[in-house]
Amino acid sequence: MKEFPIFLALQGRPTLVVGGTAMAAAKARLLREAGARVTVIAEHAAPAMTALAETDPGLRLIERSFRAADSAGHALIYSATGDALEDARVSAAARAANVPVNAVDRPDLSTFITPAIVDRAPLTIAISSGGAAPVLTRRLRVWLESNLPQRIGRLAAFAGSFRAAVKAAVTDFPSRRLLWDGVFDGPIGEAVLAGDETGARERMIALINRPQEPHRGIIHIVGAGPGDPELLTIKALQALQRADIVVHDRLVSAEVLAFARRDAERVFVGKTPGNATLPQDDINALLARLAQAGKRVVRLKGGDPFIFGRGGEEVEYLRARGLDVVVVPGITAAAGCAAAAQIPLTHRDHATAVTFVTGHASDGEPDLDWRALASFGQTLAVYMGIGQAPVIAERLIEAGRDPATPVAVIENGTTAKQRVVSGTLRGLARLVAGNAIESPALLIIGAVTLSAADADRPPEALQAAV
């Protein structure tokens, strides 16, 4: 974050606006809406500022030039004089007095930024680009204004009126959060938004007085997709935002993890080839222990948890212990990476079938039916196959696959670091080694790779060599 977002309580506190411009009047009006006492210092006041001073007793207009001593004692200062040199003088004086200052449209002179604001009191939403794109933040504000329910502020006030009662009735935090999730997502929240606060209040009282069941933990086994955070499903996003703890793998990006609640604990259990931070049996036991302690757990895996993700093993372990498990599928690497490289996994002219296989086994070489995989007319998508690329090519050719079969290797698919290189099955080992391909990478073998649309293919000489 370029700036730290914070909401400042200004009710009854003194603030200063320097300048008599229409923009200065807008800032003074904004401060008054927040309950601040406002002093405006301006040699010449525009009609908008004069009218505001005449109608608002909480605003005092002093018609003279700004003095450095004026900065002292204020919660914050706005400078909107329309004069760059004067704004710089006000900024310097405010900084010297350790008072937060904003010089309008001059982020270099400002110690705080005024966000675009959506006001649904008591709910306030602030949007900022750090001064980089104020027009964009205003567009986002308009979008939020038009998409948020008009009575969302009433829902916030309704929840606030019951906060103490809920806290007294439901003593543990996880159960309280689940109760509020049910309120906002269920008929009580819908009633408030529809304007039936009396009915909503009756239902809320009944809910609070109902004996509360002990909080029961749950595990969501969630697919994070192939890397691009925008490929996360809505259901996965919802699970992340409700989780107490996120247990995640190495291939889950920081951008995806950022969707989790800020106060959610993050536990890394990632594996690299030949090295497991935590053995699978220990991961299983960890998930069970957390759920038994009443936690809402998200087990976050790259791609889809049921495709070479050991999700099936975890589900079996947890269900055998009577724990609640929900599986949230994700876009698997073969589908996501192939689409990002514009490679169709099936094609009427080239492939009537696609087979997903793993190129990794506990003893190195995978135990696969190479003859079946070598059959014509199918696409092979090989997961975790970089280390075994020479063996994979050799076994397929031995089983009858044409050595000239086109192949593509997609490294870091769907992300900004995506690289796609292509060649032939005969030269797969040199293709991987010559381009220094590293995990995560997907091998796609078959004629469909001829349609790969990328700018990162090796030069013609390399393609001829492979």
Could you write a compact summary of the structure shown?
Helix content is 36%, strand content 19%. The protein is built from 17 helices and 19 strands.
Please characterize this protein's 3D structure.
It contains 17 helices and 19 strands. It is an alpha/beta fold. It has four domains: 14-114, NAD(P)-binding Rossmann-like Domain (Rossmann fold, 3-Layer(aba) Sandwich), CATH 3.40.50; 152-209; 218-331, Tetrapyrrole methylase, N-terminal domain (Cobalt-precorrin-4 Transmethylase, domain 1), CATH 3.40.1010; 335-465, Tetrapyrrole methylase, C-terminal domain (Methyltransferase, Cobalt-precorrin-4 Transmethylase, Domain 2). The chain has a five-stranded parallel sheet, with helices on both faces. Strands 10-9-13-8-14 form a five-stranded parallel sheet, with helices on both faces. Strands 15-16-19-17-18 form a five-stranded mixed sheet, with helices on both faces. Strand 4, helix 3 and strand 5 form a beta-alpha-beta unit. Helix 6 packs across helix 7 (187-193) and helix 11 packs across helix 12. The chain is globular.
